[in-house]
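Figure 3 (text version): structure tokens given as input.
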């Protein structure tokens, strides 16, 4: 695990388009939020030259659905990178009800760093690892 990972947060409000037939947030929507918050974290922390040279792709999702979320509830998304290997990183996402703090979803995703020019995995250099630390 990174010595002191930076925890990135976003809030959002559940909208009608997020709901399924049972009128709670659709599981597929949670997967989208996991990807969205990861992208936002990357874009907020990575210098422009990194963003121009690399992109990330998901190679594995592990998601535990704990509780339901409903229309108009405020949701808190928290994410951090816990470890990196040669070309992959492990990212955690915790999705909570912002008002109660109750965990709705816990996700662990594995991402591979891809070099945009050659479209192949790229080594995660130390300076890149450090952008996700406090």
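Below: residues designed for each position.
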């Amino acid at each position: 695990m990174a010595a002191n990972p930076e925890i990135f947060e976003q809030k959002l409000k559940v909208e009608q388009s997020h709901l399924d037939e049972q009128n709670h947030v659709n599981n597929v929507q949670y997967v989208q939020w996991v990807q969205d918050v990861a992208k936002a974290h990357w874009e907020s922390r990575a210098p422009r030259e990194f963003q121009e040279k690399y992109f990330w792709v998901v190679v594995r999702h592990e998601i535990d659905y704990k509780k339901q979320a409903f229309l108009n509830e405020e949701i808190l998304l928290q994410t951090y990178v816990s470890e990196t290997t040669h070309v992959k990183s492990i990212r955690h996402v915790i999705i909570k009800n912002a008002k109660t703090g109750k965990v709705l979803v816990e996700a662990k995703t594995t991402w591979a760093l891809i070099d945009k020019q050659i479209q192949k995995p790229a080594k995660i250099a130390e300076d890149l690892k450090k952008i996700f630390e406090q």
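The domain at 8-132 is CATH 3.10.129.10 (Thiol Ester Dehydrase; Chain A).
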